[in-house]
Write a structure and sequence with these properties.
This protein is an alpha/beta fold and about 260 residues long. It has a domain of about 70 residues. It is built from nine helices and twelve strands. The strands form three sheets. A six-stranded mixed sheet has the order 8-9-10-3-11-12, with helices on both faces. Strands 2-1-4-5 form a four-stranded antiparallel sheet. The chain is globular, with a radius of gyration of 18 Å. It binds adenosine-5'-diphosphate and magnesium ion. The site of adenosine-5'-diphosphate (ADP) has 10 residues, from α1.
């Protein structure tokens, strides 16, 4: 049994000579909210993409819910790649919310939410639709189920994207700067939905520059720089009493 719902161990990833992930170890326990902070280019998106297997790692391994993502260690210690089919099955158990919503433009809000459980998980459409309606209610969009993305504000689109991520009944939901593309007045409604998920015990990993949100919601704050985790701990530890100069310099800039 693994201690974490998400376990990242010794993960390395390079693009050419650039070490984008330079030995990442991270454990996310069930029900925890991990907020990842760090300057642009520090590897945050690459880490999330590796957890979701959108990105192959060069070394190390990642487990979600006790299942290896991408690689398993053979008895001789070498890494063996998982088969594509197995990867796809594992990926359906992870929700991913992107900075730019990435909704299907030709599908309504309801159809966007219904898509993955039906086509990737093969679940019955009627049952999935009933759940999708509930999810859209939950994110405050019960009156928008038949709207197309272009008819929705950025904040509403991102809330559809969150409902869509939840529709696969994921064991963890990953957010990559979910409010960065939003007008300032729309940030709050999206953070409220994420806060609600946190309060109901959903395991979350959130890359964000919203320090106030991190302080309020995070179980653990992780500060990344140069492909490494420089410092991690409770919000009080990392945000109010950072031990590393690089963390302090970053917080001085964003606070
Ligand atoms: P962050 O999300 O923290 O801003 P990223 O994970 O997106 O950082 O990127 C980390 C570094 O990797 C950056 O220097 C970026 O330019 C580089 N990078 C990301 N994706 C690629 C890619 N597909 N090819 C080459 N370099 C990349
Ligand atoms: Mg990024």
């Amino acid at each position: 049994m693994s201690a974490g719902l998400v376990e990242v161990r010794g993960v390395h990833k390079a693009y050419g000579t650039l070490e984008v992930l330079d030995g990442i170890d991270l454990v996310v326990k069930p029900g925890e909210v991990t907020v990842i902070l760090g300057p642009s280019g520090s590897g945050k998106s690459t880490l999330l993409r590796a957890i979701n297997h959108l990105e192959k790692v060069d070394r190390g391994f990642i487990e979600v819910d006790g299942e290896l993502i991408g690689y398993r260690t053979r008895s001789d210690g070498a890494l063996q790649e998982l088969k594509e089919k197995e990867i796809l099955r594992q990926r359906t158990r992870i929700g991913f919310v992107f900075q730019n919503f990435n909704l299907f433009p030709h599908l309504t809000a309801l159809e966007n939410v219904v898509e993955a459980p039906v086509s990737a998980q093969g679940r019955p459409r009627a049952e999935v639709e009933a759940e999708a309606r509930e999810l859209l209610e939950r994110v405050g969009l019960g009156d928008k189920i038949d709207a197309y993305p272009r008819q929705l504000s950025g904040g509403q689109q991102q809330r559809v994207a969150i409902a869509r991520a939840l529709a696969v009944k994921p064991s963890v939901v990953l957010f990559d700067e979910p409010t960065s593309a939003l007008d300032p007045e729309l940030v709050g409604e999206v953070l409220d939905v994420i806060r609600d998920l946190a309060a109901t015990g959903t395991t979350l990993v959130v890359v964000t520059h919203e320090i106030g949100f991190a302080r309020e919601v995070a179980t653990t704050v992780v500060f990344m720089d140069g492909g490494r985790i420089v410092e991690q701990g409770s919000p009080a530890q990392v945000l109010d009493d950072p031990q590393q100069e690089r963390t302090r310099a970053f917080l001085d800039k964003v606070l």
